[in-house]
Specification:
This protein is mainly beta. The strands form 11 sheets. A 12-stranded mixed β-sheet has the order 9-11-45-43-41-39-37-34-32-31-29-27, with no helix packed on it. Strands 4-6-7-8-10-46-44 form a 7-stranded mixed β-sheet, with no helix packed on it. The chain has a 7-stranded mixed β-sheet with strand order 15-16-18-19-22-25-26, with no helix packed on it.
Amino acid sequence: MWWSFLLLLGINSVTSEIKRNNYYLNIDNNNKLIDIKSNESFDHIDLSGLNIKAISRSVFDNFQNTKSIDLSNNSFAKLPEFIFTNLTKLETLKLSNNNFDKFENTFVGLDNLKTLDISHNPLLHLRRSYFFGLTKNTNIITEGNNFYTLSTDLFENPFLRDTIDSSEITNDDDINDAIKADERYNSYSEITSDESLDSSINPSLKIKVCKNIKNILTSVEELFNNESLPDNCVLGKINHNSKELDLENLKLHKFTKNWYKLGNYPFSQISFASNDITELTPELLNDLPSSIKTISLIYNKITKINNSTIENNHIKKILLGFNELHEIQENAFLNTKLIELFISDNKLDNLGFVKTLPSSIVSLNLGNNLFKNIPDNIFSNLGKLMFLPLYNNQLININEKAFEGLTSLLDLLLDNNKIEKIEPNAFSSLKSIKSINLHNNKIEILNDGLFKDLNPIDINLSRNKIKNITKYTFDGLSSSSLRDLYLNSNEIENIEAESFVKVPRRILDLGNNKIKKIIPGVFNLRYLKELHLENNLLTTIDGDSYIGLPKLRHLYLSSNKIGNIKKGSMKYLRSIFTISLASNPIGQFNNGDLYGLPKTKGHYLDIHGTSVKCIQGGLFDDA
């Protein structure tokens, strides 16, 4: 048969000829347009609605004078590269309602194109060089697309050597900041390191844990190989890596004297977690050998610690979190040399016991209790204290001498309280402070110079009720130290000029406030890397709003009310890497709107949820 002969010749498709207007279309059985036959030239070629899936590279070679081509409502996923190169007089090109998700050298040669319609395609990202060949005279219709990103090199020549991707460059300032952040813990690690015996615990060691019928622990001792386990005893658990003796979940209530009989073995920790212990007694802790450094009593039922109960100079860390403590008497820990005391998640409401804590304390966790105030000078004896978590309490006011004497403090955690007022010099003693966390309080006013002469790495003031920022609010902060400043989720409406000068150096978060406008001169932050302004009330991007941010790399403006971008407003953002404009009512990008942004590989704008309907070809030009 004739068709078998064609197959032998390698011809496996059949074309059909369709007449449209005054030309004939040859379309094969794979819905590929092979050529267009006509003895005439046309201003307009209509190829819409034919379910065409592919097209030959040379289809338009004989139509150099054509001004309009309609390829809409087909099934194209891609077009051959340089397909329109000879159509130098083309003014309108319709590619809407197809399956395009990218373009590669599609528009080269279209110097006179005025309208490109790519609406209603599955384009998610406008990537590098997709629009190479288009000029500022081209209006690109994009309605009905759900774009996520728009690359700043969208119109760039793909054949030029790629510029260095600045996302891969590590900035010296970033390295230095990271070093500073790590250094603050070095001295703490040295102080709290376990100096117990280097010798390991015999891996074959077995331990019997014995208690009486009233769940009183009577002994913890070695179980020898030829010995059977008594009825009132259970096998003890050993964590050899941490040298911990695990006495958890045994329903222990009390202890007899001299219950610990493993003095020959270098255990450094004992965990009594999740038992039924209701009080600390001399029998529990005072007869332990010097190798024991850490005691965990978390998740018990301890309600009170009496004075002078604990007399042990060897124990360095006691964990008492998640009990039912409502009182710790003064002098309770006087006869110890503790370095760490963990008493969070209890029911304490009085800090009186703190003034008699040993001066050796380096870390004191008081979080998630019921403290309502901090008495003056209560911490004055703790000159070595580095970490002070006071989160999740009921603090209302911070007095001027609340933290007097804490000259070594590194981290102060005051988040999730009810703080309304902080007196002007409340932090003046914190000469070593690196982190202040005031997240989720009720602060309305920040006294001018509250942080003066401090050297913190980060300050968190998010989720408060702050309304105004003045040029004196952060006056006096060390310009070489403050890295991150969080003011998000407040009620900030106004920011004075010169409010942020030199600090912070890395992140400034002003997101989720009520800011309507950024006036010129607000920022003079030479080293800032990230600026968050998302979820505010900004309506436009003004030309001089972002002067003073020469090294800014990430600008977040999502979920505002930005409807337009004033020409030249981006020209000062020469180092920017990403800009988020997501979920703003931006309907069009005009020529010159994004002029000044670096057209470098990897740089992009997040435009998800903006409903952009038109992009002009010169949006990155000095139009």
